[in-house]
Amino acid sequence: MFLSNHDLVELTDIRHELHRFPEISGQEKDTARRICAHLEESRPDRVLTDLGGHGVAAIFDSGNDGPSMLIRSELDALPILEKTDVPYRSTIEGHGHLCGHDGHSTILLALARGLAKRRPGKGKVILLFQPAEETGAGAAAVIADRSFEDIRPDYAFSLHNLPGLPLGHVSLIEGPVNCASRGIKIKLTGKTAHASSPEHGVSPMRAISALMPALSSLGQGFPPQPDFKMVTITHAMMGEAAFGIAPANAEIWATLRTLTDERMAELCAAAEELATKSAADNALAIDMSYADIFHHCENDPDAVAQLRMALDQEQVQYDGRSLPMRASEDFGRFGAVSKSAMFFLGAGTDHPNLHNPDYDFPDALIATGARIFMRAIRNLTD
């Protein structure tokens, strides 16, 4: 193991520090500053900041020809109130590291320590601390940043901890591992009236009441079925908070989910057709828009082979259970610019689920994740 017990104690303290000061997507300025401060002792050859927002990339360059390898973690937390009793719980009301990005970033800081002790013999290693993963905007912004051309990798790897898997167990497969998803906002507009004379207005009540079950019914199947589709109603609103007004306005927000990007166009068209017909049938104006767009995440066979070799060498047990996942991940964007693969690292069979208010990243995974990645780094760059 390239990390000493002293390293692991310090890295655990760093993880707890990041946990205490969570910042949500697009607001990770102080988190990025903390990451840069902790990177200093590892002496990367270059550090890029403000990448795609508040992203940070630490580059360890051998100066010799060889593969370029990127390892990605995430900087952002969630707008969820943390409900744990850990002494390092969030100090920011309503925000919390309830997905484990604090732990993922600490794993990359562990890799920086290992690369400082023994730098790559060929090629280069890029440790990317990515902003705004939770909104699906971060990876696209990083790749679109002109500075990314300097670090465009041959391989890109990432991990995500996964409650429900045994602690330290890995799940890894080729092909799709995370679904495509996007949010659709449907706004319906009619005409207000006095609540005693609703017939003088145009209410969206019938449309919104019918649309919610109709949209949900578009879903079918479960991954890994290629025709898997899912629609989840996440928010609905109608009218004003008043008893004297028959409503004119309504909104429905829903998350659309498919196994692959190719299927998403079909689901969007079906949802739009339903909404448009409902608006027309009820004499309503309609406006539709999309947000939080995630491409599906697909593991490249060559990249998966590299990870499997590292797992075998480190004697870490792995299989393909729980994959592909219905959840989305914006790491899939890196598949368009490199051979990419993500693996999932068990957080424990009884561990609170991701995005639960009582979730906390297991510190034991810092060492496990770091040694898997470091073995893959050595295999490609020694």
TrEMBL record:
Q: Which residues bind Mn(2+)?
A: C99, H101, E134, H160, H355
Q: Which cofactor does it need?
A: Mn(2+)
Would the keyword Manganese be found if you checked this record's keyword annotation? yes
Q: Which GO terms describe its molecular function?
A: hydrolase activity; metal ion binding
By its UniProt entry, which InterPro entries does this protein fall under? Amidohydrolase, Bact_exopeptidase_dim_dom, Peptidase_M20, Peptidase_M20_dimer
Keyword hit for Nuclease: no
Co-factor binding comment: The Mn(2+) ion enhances activity.
Which key words are in the record? Hydrolase, Manganese, Metal-binding
Give the transmembrane region(s): none
User: What is the name listed in the Swiss-Prot or TrEMBL entry for this protein?
Assistant: Peptidase M20
Peptidase M20 dimerisation domain: residues covered: 182-280
